[in-house]
Amino acid sequence: MDxxxxxxxxxxxxxxxxxxxxxxxxxxxxxxxxxxxxxFPAGTTRYTAGWRAVGASxxxxxxxxxxxxxxxxxxxxxxxxxxxxxxxxxxxxxVCERVGxxxxxxxxxxxxxxxxxxxxxxxxDDPVYRSGATPGNVVCVTGTLGRxxxxxxxxERGTRHDDPDALERANELFRFEPRVAAGRALAPHATAMMDxxxxxxxxxxxxxxxxxxxxxxxxxxxxxxxxxxxxxxTDDEALERATTFGEDFELVVTxxxxxxxxxxxxxxxxxxxxxxxxxxxxxxxxxxxxxEDRGYTH
Length: 298
What we know:
7-stranded mixed β-sheet; alpha+beta; 5-stranded mixed β-sheet; 12 strands; 298 residues; 24% strand
């Protein structure tokens, strides 16, 4: 059973499961686990790891349209190195501060590989779920896609010593800004929203399943990050990786078309209209061709 099958099983068992975060009496709660072998390539600093691990949970809070308030983490490693531990905590604290929250501690444990389990909480009186997209809405994404795909290539170049600056640039790309402020601005207008941690294509399929709708996407409008364009061999490769690689933590949101201009003027980050919501029977297409359900799988 893979992660998606396990999640489907739990959604049938747990009433609050199935969205980016659970919402209980206005309190938004989410948790994530990241491992060194699968989530932190060689060359990832502990500061970046702290930022990224906590940022992943903060991104789920953002996807619900909530204000982030606090985060905690369980830090596990084969041994506790003072510099690494402090760097992790400082990264975790800085990403919380960036979005108006606070890192308030956590737990320590021994483990055969470096692992971070994070929990973030937030507050909202009007959460945005994945289930409200309606034909006639437009679908948009915040920021750009492909930062993490570009970072992975740079981590590989850095560990091969092909590029002396590659690891520094890779770490910078890995330290994304959770879109909490954007989520708050989008919330009064959004009909459905989630983060793109599993990739744009997979996010669209998840939104379609939750909202019982389809999507028609225009490839030319997908905002591909310049860093990905710089490392991809071709434009087609850049589009492929921007669409399916995942781990970008941008927001994928559906809006009434007449709300787009209002929302764009309220955001401090770019918001790109990449297509429209259609009827379920039309499926999910990009430039008229079926867009497969492909993305990050744990």
